Amino acid sequence: MTNSSTGTRRRAIRRPAALLLAAALATPLIAGCGSTGAAGTSELKASAPASRPAVDPAQAAATAQGTDAFGLDLLHTLTATPDSAGRNLVVSPSGLSTVLGMLLPGARGATAQELAKALHTGLDPKQYALVAGALNRPVPTTDGLTLHQADEVWTQQGFPVEPDYLATLATAFDAGVHTTDFKKDPEGSRKAVNAAVEKATEGRIKDLFAPNAINGGTRLVLTDALYLKAKWASAFKPAHTEDRPFHKLDGATPNVSTMSQTGEFKYADGSGGIVGEPWQAVELPYANGNLAMDLIVPAQGGFAAFTKGLDQPQLDRILGALSAQPVDLQLPRFHFDTSNELTPALRSLGVNAAFDHADLSGIAKEPLAVSTVVQKATVEVDEDGTVAAAGSGVGVGAAAAPAPRQPAQLHIDRPFLFLIRDTSNGRPLFLGQVTDPQAE
After folding, report:
1. Following DSSP, what letter does each residue of 88-127 receive, concatenated?
2. What are phi and psi of 158, to 5 degrees?
3. What is the rounded average pLDDT of the residues 247-271?
4. Between vectors from CA 158 to CA 155 and to CA 160, what angle results, nearest 5°?
5. pLDDT at res. 33
6. Percent of the chain whose pLDDT exceeds 90
7. Which of 28, 105, 271, 274 could bridge 202 with an S-S bond, Cβ 3.0-4.6 Å?
8. In the chain, what are the domains?
9. pLDDT reported for residue 240
């Protein structure tokens, strides 16, 4: 690409070109492939270094905590109304923080300040990108675990993107760079972007960008695609699954397909103190990796107050209280999708300049503004494990008890929260709530 500068007067009268962000998430059980996309699309794989720079462990821990806080902010914002509070929801804090982390090194002034505040980071933008990229490190595929992530940049043919910006994305995220012709073939370009996301998510995230979301004014698209398929370290036996009552928020009590097992898990419970409402929590490790699903179950009637009051320090205390013990566990099977246009949610978190009066001069000298931020996710939990858009956790070996203990009882028959995380670094990949296990 060649650089070109635009005079101050010309910049003052030009409307910003469109820049699109997307965090794509998937939980496929069946692999698939996408369409061919625009004929003029080509890949310019950015030159990433042979190895990523080492990052400060303290910065990595702080960034993971910030991503936790960002995810809870999104959860609170997306469930702020009575209608939204009662629905199933899944978001990927890791996916969205990654795609915003790809934008951040190109932002300046208030645009950068607002993005950093929403992401709960005080790091220099380039350093944040490096740390976020390090947290997104590849995980080797094993018989029981598949986790992969793909970050991509799509730019208008001939659009003068700053080489330093692309180099930062290549170094931090190993981001692939593609050129396409949004001006002449916006629909073909949209199909090409969507096809790449669909392929990276094993065919389960289709049409990430809806028709007309990419148009002739688009200049840059950033995407993150994340795919997880993981088996439980201790699988549920299908013969033990049966229909049991589930107490929904509206008072209905349908029978739902509920798994059960008794085993050694990390467990904690409490009332008052941490959040002010009684709760129980359990961690289910996945096989062959540092990934686990944490389930947090408020007492019957306390879900709304508990969720509203939960913040990152309180979540840390709950997770820190978990300890291995026998647990009599019942867990509903669930499978649902979530699709969100996140501009309103980000605005409510104080990100306005990126959409209104953006300074993205670190990306290009020509004026740019973010036009949309979208995310799709899907999650499925059954007896074998989880197929989901993001994942984090650790396998916990059953520790020998000095004497038999009465199992703690956690029969999940009411709305609950769940978190999939990498317990080796604290990265939250997947966060959501289940209010109706039968809803899709």
Report:
1. -EEE-HHHHHHHHHHHGGG--HHHHHHHHHHTT--S-HHH
2. 80, -5
3. 93
4. 75
5. 27
6. 46
7. 28
8. 8-230+336-379 (3.30.497.10), 232-333+387-434 (2.30.39.10)
9. 95
